[in-house]
Amino acid sequence: MPLVLILNGPNLNLLGKRQPEIYGRETLADVERDCAALGQDLGLQTRLLQSNHEGQIVDWIHEARETAQGIVINPGALTHTSVAILDALHAFEGPVIEVHISNVHKRESFRHHSYVSLRADGIIVGCGTQGYQLALRRLATLLTA
Ligand code: DQA
Predict the structure, then answer these.
(1) DSSP codes joined into one string, 22-87
(2) pTM more than 0.85
(3) How many domains does the chain have?
(4) pLDDT (tens digit, 9 = 90+) per residue, 14-40?
């Protein structure tokens, strides 16, 4: 089965606890469980990872060059700052879907720009944690086309 990495950036370890009015009450463990179950149905193996450190995310993307066929990424605040993550994603050949739980376009203007969008094959914004599942469905289509 193709492997999809679901990468999460800073503060997403606090999902379900931090600003639930914006990010909802589901935790990252809930997301991991739901994605694993959907992945089974779609014929995808999933591995969810989270780090508060930019370099760790860059390293995981490098490893994905050898091990994974697709990437779902919510880089958190690094979305708006990280050329390093953009460059790492440019070095990954499979499809990449960018996810934001909140509708970043309804929020502060500094959240309106994403470096990662310059590489993403698709972007899912403002669909809550369901966005991860929508991203997986899209990857299943792209990986089996
Ligand atoms: C986020 C949006 C970012 O602006 C923010 O820094 C996050 C989460 C989202 O999923 O809505 O940490 O990526």
Answers:
(1) HH-S--HHHHHHHHHHHHHHHT-EEEEEE-S-HHHHHHHHHHHHHH-SEEEEE-GGGGGT-HHHHH
(2) yes
(3) 1
(4) 999 999 999 999 999 999 999 999 999
